[in-house]
Amino acid sequence: MQQNKAEWNKMLQAASPRLGTRWLAGIAGLAWLSAGCGGEPAATACPDCGTVVIAATGAPASVFPPMVFQTVGRDVSDRIYERLAYLEPGRAPTDTTGYRAGLAVRWERLDSLTWRLQLRPGARWHDGTPLTAHDVAFSFDVFADPEIDALARPSIEGRLQAVAVDDSTVDIRFREPSPEQLYDATYHVRVIPRHIWEDIPREAWATDTTRAHLVGSGPYRLMSWHGAQSLELAAVDTTPAGPAITRLLWRFSADPVASLHLLLSHAGDAIEAVGGPAQVAQVADDTTFRLEAYPSAVHGFLGFQITRPTGRAHPIFGNREVRRALSMAIDRHAVARAVMGPDAAAPPGPMSRLLWIWNDSIAVLPADTAQAVGILDGQGWRLDDAGTTRRQGRRPLRFDVLVPATSRTRRQVAEAMQEMWRRVGVEATITAVDFPVFQERLGEGRFDTYIGAWLDAPSPRSLGDQWTHAGWEVLNYGRYANAVFDSLVTAASREARVDTARVLWREAMDVLNADAPALFLYTPTNVAAFHRRLLGVTVDPYSWLESVAQWTVD
């Protein structure tokens, strides 16, 4: 159930990555907040220059870390709450030099099962209560609790435990050795205040909307939240040495078009993803804004059903050679660029450009329609007398592509592939269903093929859930299995040396691509927009507002 929930969330957030799609809620203008910031000193002429209005699509259901299931909720929550340490983008989780301090300022491995972390001296919650290692231990217990059912629960429950050694020292104890222990100890959990939540029954947490309970230790505190309309954070440190961005105001819109309109009407200062080439051109024409392109953490793919839920092979896709032919009939790069824009790429496996195992030397099947036709002929799928449809006996080579109705992008990808297959005599239909139905049909195996999208985490470990035999009841909906691939994934996941692990992951991807259980179709480039008065802006692709406390104001 939890893994399905994680897939639900990640696929929802990737439902239309080209437009940064999320959901919910209205729009109202606050143009005065981003206007009038000229060349005079901000403190005198422009008291609101330290305010950044964020145009967001969809409102968060929660900003309390263990109950955050939307990226817009994470964007807010990560400004309020802290991790113990932060992995720099693009660094391998096994590289212990790739982490920077968060609540923890030092860490060391005590033995093969234990890491010890020292907390920041003087750390306090926003209400003034000292933050201690007991809060850390409490937080890990919460994230592992089935009652709470946090997205990170599978990475914590039964695998590790946080123990307070004293007020400023915490040990993270693992059940078994792993090269990603520091990653698991620091990435998944945002620390929450024990003194606020420990006396509230956990079964009541999901319905607790008390703003006073949303107390963190990060650079910003919650000031107001007006449901699906807006949410406001204020800087905790208001001294001259504190953040130049003293106020963050999210304005939630019902769809990407409304969010973009908010920006272009100068009622917003920043947007995570402008949209496609036409929308980028619109914003580029407005000299108020600066565009920042950055690689998306999303990758999209078409997955074949290889084994039926009954255990029998799919009548078409159970044949490896047919899958390879259908893959070679598709020009993946042309599909990616046509739908996602010229900066999109076709990935060499189930990964975005952000995943550290990306390697251009990974072997992929070529786009080769002549070879595809030859293979299909050789497998007995020959064109009928009309020369339009391939048949094996009386059975046509026909199958369905399942897509979520919420994603215009995935529908367009399916249509592009449908036309390419038609040219080699293959009939593909497209079925679009509401997302809950889409998810239900994947779990029950009621599909031929489907177009999925995945939001990468920094670790490739989840590839085991998606593509190994062990993942059949988790996220491997097509029920692909290859013992060589499984063994390579296991070996790569256990390898602590980054260079060696990279080689093993490349070999695993070579095996996967040769078997063609899926077509790995696209990973987009997002384009964010920022008001030109905002300086020092850098975009962390995993959390685009990560550096906001370091921005300055012109």
What does this structure look like?
There is one protein chain. With about 550 residues, the protein is α+β, with helices and mostly antiparallel strands. The chain is built from 17 helices and 23 strands. The protein has helices at about 1-15, 40-45, 70-80, 135-145, 155, 180-185, 195, 255-265, 275-285, 320-330, 330-340, 370-380, 410-420, 435-445, 465, 485-495, 500-515, and strands spanning about 50-55, 85, 100, 105-110, 115-120, 160-165, 170-175, 220-225, 230-235, 245-255, 270, 290-295, 300-305, 380-385, 390, 395, 400-405, 425-435, 450-455, 520, 525-530, 535, 550-554. It has a seven-stranded mixed sheet with strand order 8-9-10-1-11-21-12, sandwiched between helices. It has a five-stranded mixed sheet with strand order 18-17-19-13-20. A hairpin with a 2-residue loop joins strand 4 (about 105-110) and strand 5 (about 115-120). The longest helix has 18 residues, at about 500-515. The chain is globular and about 80 Å long. Mean pLDDT is about 90; it is low at about 1-45.
SS class:
alpha+beta
Mean pLDDT: 90
Largest sheet: 7 strands, mixed
Given as residue ranges, the uncertain stretches (5+ residues, pLDDT < 50) are: 1-45
The counted number of beta strands is: 23
Strand order of the largest sheet: 8-9-10-1-11-21-12
Q: Describe the global form.
A: globular
Helix share bin: 25-40%
The whole-angstrom Rg is: 25 Å
The total count of helices amounts to: 17
